[in-house]
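User: I'm writing a short report section on ligand binding and want a predicted complex to refer to. Could you take this sequence and zinc ion and write out the structure as tokens? A short remark afterwards would be nice.
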Amino acid sequence: MKTLLKNCVTHRSVLNILIEDEKIAALEPVSDQKISSYDRMIDIGDALVIPAMIDPHVHVRDLELSYKEDWTSASKAALAGGIATIFDMPNTRPATVDRASLDLKRKAAEKSLVQYKFYLGATSKNIDILNEILKDEPEDIAGIKVFLAASNSNEIIKDRKYLKRIFELAGKFNKIVVVHAELQSCLDIWKVSDLKHNILNHNELRNRMSAIEGTKICIDAAYEIGNKMSLAHISTQEEIECISIFKNSDRIFCELTPHHLLLNSRILSKIGNIGKVNPPLRTAKDNEVLATAVRLGFVDYIGTDHAPHTLAEKLQDYESAPSGFPGLETALPVLLTAVREGTFGLEKMIEITSGRAAEIFELKNTGEIKVGNYADLAVIDRDVKYKIDPQNFLTKAKYSPFAAKEVTGKVLKTFVKGKMYECEKL
Ligand code: DOR
Ligand code: ZN
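Assistant: Sure. The structure tokens for the complex follow:
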């Protein structure tokens, strides 16, 4: 099956794109009009066409937590957000920490409409099990996830020697370790702090020192061991300062979420525990530094940290409300809006939402609009203005810290390996 997409505005030029089955078979400038053999033609009508987003940080839930989200709802939300590939985190129930739990997850993920991989979770006891799983070179494992602090997580790694052993193991199999680097020992001060336990103090209680210290420990360890490591959801100026020193290493990477880039703790007086997330929303100054870091190339990729919980759970009191909120359907609209506002360029946005993740996670034939690559594409109306309305979300979690934000840019269609999904019809 050959499909010709006519009049696609890419960030470089206006192209006709020929898709043959799963892949991009030919590209031509619209003025050429030479591609004449195809089964169907779709006029893209000068909409923006970018590589579909790759989201290396998603909590799909499913299994015992399918009331929060499952692979059908999460993958539909991804499609609605222009995302063709997601990597699922291991802090599920059961946690993805051994073969049996991995097989359960593999079964659940068969429902997915988008491409996926899984992280294996590190526990204080499962290093041999991880070794056993990885030695079969499973294609569907994105890497190993380590939590240094409790955060809806199943287990945390406290022992630094053991952390290095995990890094070594990952290095042996050329797998990346993705770390949630808030450090539990720094967080424990909330137990003795005089600060009132409420959402307005979340940024202080779950203090920035914990993220900074954890980041330093992980960078030191990865530098020493020589493995590939990525720091999930960096949130502070100081983490960027630490990371920037190692930016030439090509082994030490970092992820930024749209919410740490664009929101800060000032919003919490309006949205309460809806905005509770770990690491917390920080300060306006951090937003500024993180935006500069994107422009300077210190941020490798965007991860949404899509972390759905039920609205009822989120509306509980501060201590009981779980951390996290959905992000699959808001990421591209808020980032496109940031591009329009001049925070960074479109080319940079495309790099951190697709190209760089494809490189770092070694995904073959994707992340770029190029002949021979899979047709993983997002078609976007760049000009339409609207307010984010969570009632329209396809995730089960119909709330967002970005609710009511005016954005410019809407995903119209998402292609996954050449298969077209129209967002209106999902
Ligand atoms: O806010 C968060 N939610 N941070 C995490 O680290 C975990 C996530 C979740 O799983 O809900
Ligand atoms: Zn997460």
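A remark for your report: The longest strand covers residues 377-387. The pocket of DOR (ligand 1) is lined by residues 59, 91, 151-152, 180, 277-278, 307, 322-324 (CB under 6 Å).
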